[in-house]
Input
Amino acid sequence: MGKETRVNGNIREFLLKGEKNKDFVMTDIPEHGLSGGIISELIYYYDINKFYKKHYEEIWDEINKLGGLIEIIKDEKNQPSTHDHFNCLMTWLAVESIACYICNEREEKVA
Output
């Protein structure tokens, strides 16, 4: 299993703390996404499901800001994805989106 997921605070705080601890580089998240394992706490379904349950409302608030779900997420065989895979995709989408906000805010301060 992956490391114990840090679930204290909201997603933004989670990201800023991980960056401060040099667990990852914030700009890598919008550039490469989370599927490559950039954030070690968001690799394994066990950890992602804990994170998803803790941040459920915030994740879905973010998904809704992005326009909601257009269609059911499907796997490579065009079948509905598993519950764990769905939670993973929704978590990654919300975390990647919030990381983008953070990076954009920083760029606006520089400009």
User: Anything to note?
Assistant: The CA atoms of residues 29 and 81 lie 23 Å apart. Residues 11-110 form one domain.
